[in-house]
Design a protein that fits this description.
80 residues, mainly alpha, 5 helices
């Protein structure tokens, strides 16, 4: 699995952020868990890491599964 990179302004890890939110404490930023992406990865035979870090594969998977352009609001990035 690829290591998670933190922005220099972040003071929490992703796990700490979610745990703080669940404990009704204030996180350093709003946690975002995009689990709907798991469907595209699983249904097209790729890993979550591939989906998030290979924009071209992500774009193609979204088109196959949802029938929409990934450059719309379906994925985090437009194709290269």
């Amino acid at each position: 699995m690829m290591p998670l990179k933190m922005h220099e302004m972040e003071t929490m890890t992703p796990r700490e952020r979610v745990e703080a939110t669940l404990a009704l404490k204030e996180p350093d930023r709003v946690p975002f868990i995009a689990d709907f992406h798991a469907a595209q990865a699983l249904l097209t035979g790729m890993t979550i890491e591939e989906f998030f870090f290979d924009v071209k594969k992500s774009y193609e998977a979204t088109g196959k599964v949802w029938g929409c352009l990934a450059a719309s609001t379906c994925t985090p990035a437009a194709p290269p």
